[in-house]
Amino acid sequence: MTAVVLLLAGSAASAESPAAERPTAKNLPGFSHGNVTVQGTTLHYVRGGSGPPLVLLHGWPQTWRKWAKVMPALAQSHTVIAFDLPGAGSSSIPADGYDKVTTAKRIREGVHKLGFTQVSLLGHDTGALIAHPYARDYPAEVVRMAVLETPLPGFGLEDVYGISFHLGLNQTAAPVPETLIDNEDVPAYLGWLFSSARHPDRIDQAAYFRAYARPERRTAGYDYYRAFAADAANNQANAHKRLPMPVLAMGAEFAFGPFVANSFSQVGDDVRGVVAPDSGHWVAEENPAFLTACAKLFFGPQGVPAPSPELTDCEA
């Protein structure tokens, strides 16, 4: 459970301007950056590939770039769209609306403005918490959903609050965390979180330190945490709206493991539990090969057999 420390969140990181995130794209041939205006804010995204749309939603304290190791392979069969969550990365910072229902509506509007009305979703950490109300409230628009490394508020997340102080700190009302974590404290704070990974050296920590360096980006990240109580109440009030689409619920061997599937099974009818081997909380960076193989099976055509037993539950 030590890696559960890394748990959740939502968005928090960012750059001074859209250009600050863009150097990574030079390593992703075929991908391009864009921006779309939604509900009074602007979402930054990176898009590439062709085929059915697959929307990627990151968590805290990261940005779209957390998916960089898996995006090229996924783009071989899908139109991949990796958003920066509102307030994170190169997206603008809304004054409010960090609850997951509002954020899901913003992402959905962005998807529609990009010309898609039916998508699959892949969310990690807080991105998974946003994918849930998107799929729950608009089930006809979500073909499949994969959620990585978090239980849901109201259905298990509260049970891990005592494991790491950051879960309580980030939820504390302003200006407490804003005052305690100053610009020069960011590498120590986030570095401590990343040190709990199975393979911290595989995470581009410096990029996230830079992304999280601005105070207003930190506040946006905290606000995703501060909304957890409201998220839990909303999830419980809408628990009768069960997810009808296939849901891949992946936990990491050295973090949540089967806990993710246990949580989402309470709100979904077709939940497949998978454990990512040799990985901590940041599966897309710590074991991108496994995540890529699993996602290509799950989001691919039905009837394709898994090449190994550990991927059996990833089959479409």
Question: What's the quick description here?
Answer:
The protein has 316 residues and is α/β, with parallel strands linked by helices. The protein has 13 helices and 8 strands.
Characterise the protein shown here:
Residues 52-288 form the AB hydrolase-1 domain. This is Alpha/beta fold hydrolase. GO terms for molecular function: hydrolase activity. The protein is α/β, with parallel strands linked by helices and 316 residues long. It has one domain (2-301, 309-314): Alpha/Beta hydrolase fold, catalytic domain (Rossmann fold, 3-Layer(aba) Sandwich). It is built from 13 helices and eight strands. Helix 3 crosses helix 4 and helix 7 (186-195) packs across helix 8. It is globular and about 55 Å long. 52% of the residues are buried. Residues 1-23 have low confidence and may be disordered.
Give a quick set of tags describing it.
316 residues; alpha/beta; Rossmann fold; eight-stranded mixed sheet; 13 helices; Alpha/beta fold hydrolase; AB_hydrolase_1; hydrolase activity; hydrolase
Radius of gyration from the alpha-carbon trace, in angstroms? 17 Å
H/E series, N to C? HEEEHEHEHEHHHHHHEHEHH
Overall mean pLDDT score? 92
Number of domains: 1
Determine and state the CATH class.
Alpha Beta
Helix percentage range: 25-40%
Strand-residue proportion: 15-25%
Report low-confidence residues grouped into runs of 5 or more.
1-23
Structural class: alpha/beta
Briefly note the CATH topology name.
Answer: Rossmann fold
Strand order of the largest sheet: 1-2-4-3-5-6-7-8
Number of helices in the DSSP assignment: 13
What is the CATH architecture descriptor? 3-Layer(aba) Sandwich
Distance between the termini: 29 Å
* Sheet of most strands: 8 strands, mixed
CATH homologous superfamily designation: Alpha/Beta hydrolase fold, catalytic domain
Give the overall shape, derived from the CA principal axes.
globular
DSSP E strands, number: 8
